What we know:
about 160 residues
Amino acid sequence: MAENTLNIELESSDKTAEFAVKLASKLSAGDTVLLSGDVGAGKSFFARAMITSLLTQPEDIPSPTFTLVQTYDTEIGALWHADLYRLSSDFEVEELGLLDAMSDAVCVIEWPDRLGEYMPKSALNINLSAGKTDEARRMSISWSVARWQTAMIDWERHVL
């Protein structure tokens, strides 16, 4: 399947969170969501909204910038939230256990460019960038496997 893209303008942080929650409702074990964008683009905010909506018990969702990976028990199973900004080699991806997690848990990965050769081809790629106002964001979503096609059409229809 060829790569598909969806570009969305989000006028507020509430709309960004709404999109994240809607996406979370489409996730299942083995799904990987790759979040890219500049520092301050809203990657952690987006991930936090997704994770919070899936928790069975409320808890604080810290950024994994220093721990590299945070894991959560959610209503859809294990969820791994990784921030790879500080990684310096592909070998560290293996050490973190992300390869196994990508096959049997939901993985939300910030700074996915650090995955190198381990970049999953079946992932949903989301790039966030600044919008027209401080709270606005531009979101570019891309995917190349059929698994995401229906989810993205439904996602766009119900949130826009």
